[in-house]
Design goal:
Length: 324
């Protein structure tokens, strides 16, 4: 007999302002070390949210508490109002960094088994599995043993196992590990598709370029504490340094030091920094008055990698090398 799971997710329709995942004042201590130290975090529904931090920052411990693998010492974690209990896991799909596939099981048998653990009937599980096999064009893998597959192929099977029951919250820890560029884009596209269909994705990785491509919001954790959190674009604007790149034609006139200074100069291009009280329009007006042809003029925003390193280094500004 299939378990009957209460429709807790109906609470979202009644109270749309409640975040899907709500973490309040959560603490976890191992011996004398606080792996998670009074963390509060809200993840909005239907968002791709990046959970970032160096090794040992507390990310994995926090994820294990969200999935009820571990229990917090203090604080609360709720998913759409569902408190800490095993029912919550029916709405979660978790893809850990350490993969958990049984190497001697066949692919189809393994996926059916894992889907039924998430309360799908065998018929439902088979239908979902067939849909994913068709989508990834891997129908021929059905009877292969997991151990026969390459690391990248196993990664795709692990991804299917994570999302086969249409979880409301999908937790992906380094989901692109071992994938070639083609399969990376394939999984990335499916992450966006799942989000469009209503899923919320909690995405944990060390690769900042993937975070910039995928995530709408992030939280940066270090030493068990949140250093900063917010929308990716808002954080970039918060840490910008009033620098611009300009590509031009003509002879560069005398630089008005009261408006801006030149930080770097190459052939027919400069990187400049505005003085306080001046705007980008002041720069453009100056060059136009000097009859300089402007081909491009762009504000330079810090990368998430720069923000990440500077915050982990206690706010010390870190410049990335400029190529060219």
């Amino acid at each position: 007999m299939q378990a009957v799971i209460p429709n807790y997710l109906g609470l979202l329709a009644l109270a749309p302002m409640i975040p899907l995942l709500n973490i309040q004042s959560v603490t976890k201590t191992y011996n004398q070390t606080r792996a998670v130290d009074n963390i509060s975090l809200s993840v909005p529904e239907q968002t791709i949210f990046g959970l970032l931090g160096p090794n040992g920052a507390g990310k994995t411990t926090l994820i294990r508490m969200i999935t009820s693998i571990l229990y917090q010492d203090e604080g609360s974690i709720t998913l759409a109002g569902i408190p800490d209990n095993t029912q919550r896991n029916q709405y979660i799909g978790y893809m850990p960094e350490e993969r958990g596939l049984y190497r001697k099981m066949r692919v189809g048998e393994h996926l059916l088994y894992l889907a039924q653990l998430k309360s799908l009937s065998r018929k439902q599980a088979k239908q979902k599995m067939d849909e994913w096999f068709t989508k990834f064009d891997i129908q021929d893998w059905r009877n292969k043993q997991i151990g026969e597959l390459s690391k990248g192929m196993q990664q795709k099977i692990q991804f299917i196992a994570t999302v086969i029951h249409d979880p409301k919250l999908i937790i992906l820890d380094e989901p692109f590990s071992g994938l070639d560029p083609i399969n990376t884009h394939l999984i990335q596209d499916e992450i966006f598709n799942l989000k469009q269909k209503g899923a919320t994705i909690l995405f944990s990785t060390h690769r900042m370029e993937q975070v910039e491509e995928i995530c709408e919001q992030i939280a940066l954790i270090n030493n068990g504490k949140i250093l900063l959190q917010g929308k990716v674009q808002d954080l970039k604007n918060r840490f910008k340094n009033n620098e611009f790149s300009l590509v031009y034609s003509g002879n560069l006139p005398q630089i008005p030091q009261y408006i801006f200074t030149i930080k770097q100069q190459n052939h027919q291009s400069i990187i400049l920094q505005l003085r306080e009280g001046y705007t980008a329009n002041d720069v453009l007006n100056y060059f136009l008055q000097e009859n300089i042809t402007i081909h491009s003029f762009n504000e330079i925003l810090p990368s998430l990698n720069q923000i990440f390193i500077s915050q982990v280094n206690n706010g010390k500004v870190v410049k990335e090398p400029v190529v060219g």
